[in-house]
Amino acid sequence: MNHTTYTNYSGATAGLINFYEFSGFANVTHGNLIMIVIGLFFIFLAIKYDYEPLLLIPIGTGILIGNIPMFQAVDFNLQLGVYEPGSVMNYLYQGVVQGWYPPLIFLGIGAMTDFSSLMSNPRLMLLGAAAQVGIFITFLGALYLGFAPAEAGAIGIIGGADGPTAIFLSSKLANGVNIIGYDPSGAPILVKNLIGPIAIAAYSYMALVPVIQPPIIKLFTSKRERLIKMRPPRAVSRLEKILFPIFGLLITAFIAPTSLPLLGMLFFGNLLKESGVTARLANTASNALIDTITILLGLTVGASTQADVFLTKDSILIFGLGAASFAIATMGGLIFAKIMNWLSPNHNPVNPMIGASGVSAVPDSARVVQNMGVKEDPTNHLLMHAMAPNVSGVIGSAVGAGILLSFLM
Q: Which of 156, 205, 255, 409 pairs with 46 at a CA distance of 20 to 30 A?
């Protein structure tokens, strides 16, 4: 700042002018106001409609924090904003940029997930795999719209409806740091920093699962299909529960070693839960640890959506591609479930609605299927059946992220 501006004023007046120039009123932009309204809308959805409040309230509050207007100038650092080196928010944001919040989230998810429904009916794992078609179709769509391959891969993962996986992949592929080529003069071309828009899109569609999925499910299933009752799942032994995370880790890690940070922590957390001898560790991972990381993740992701960074053409395209990706993933699971039902014997049918839960929005997508099943027939409880493709979708999206990472790094 150039304080010679105030030489014609007394000390008190110059101080007041200086105070005003540092205030938000002097630095606010239309973009800041738009983002503040979006942040308030997220908080409204969380409180009024109970849409993923554990995510939307931290993200919404982070959006407010990130868009409080402040004085900015070249070579001037107030050490307040999430992008300003040395600020507290910048230090906390490193967990997003460096990609170490998502594996800790997966540790907690593993410690609180029961894979019994999947183990009792392993064929339903295919529905979780089928739903990942949205990831790869959206990847092609992003390439068509002009995004670089690495950026397109990070955008495509939104279709998995898995916020931590989307953040992990975008921190590796669309972080604003990696070099993706060189211009004619030899200067490096950097990948765009799309972490904020991708994370907000992924978590937004996760929160809106109860709104987005029911119309798609009704469109792709008939009344008769929605009334199908499935056989009760079989009981799963303790030995099976212990062996599942061990073999699941080995198999998925050999298929896609680059997904190890996510799946390694997921299966480790599940082993803590099912071993029966590490209850304290499992309880910490599934409660205090995941709650703490969720707060930090949501707050810093929200704060990263500063208007000058977030309100761009790329963000609009990402939200559009994310919506298409999520819809395609839901359709992919439903269509594959219909095929599976046609091929199944009469005594062991598959209700095609459970295919929609192949996206990894656990457990919201499974609850949508349960609610729709009960609405059609109060005696038709599909929750346990829907949880099988739901939890396999978590595994599938992480494997999909690993595959994209191995191709695009």
A: 156
